[in-house]
Amino acid sequence: MHMIDVAALQPLVNDLVLGLLTALASIVAARLCALVKAKRDGELGQILDKTLGMGISFAMSRLKVLEDGHATVPVKSELVAEAANYAVLHVPETVKALGLDGEHLARMIEARLGTSVSAGGVGA
What we know:
Elements: H1 10-69, H2 75-90, H3 92-97, H4 102-113, H5 117-120
């Protein structure tokens, strides 16, 4: 029986196993980071949702004051602006962390109000 010496292949096998373990660890770390980021973004989204709701309520209360002084007021666009300003003022880190700008906030508020200010102007 003949013997084959595979000792020369040992460094290559070690490097291959180390590379595979590093790749596996990188994949696990990336998935864990994505999971943590998704959880964080979900929590930030809940904070923003509550803040937008409070912003809409705040804007509606300010709207009542404006209505008392004027017969006609461009209601929805002022309402959206007030609600967006409220959100930016009260949770700026959340808005920044989620990568939102004024247009995003306006669309989110419009969706909650069930209207489209940018498409329909002042609206009914």
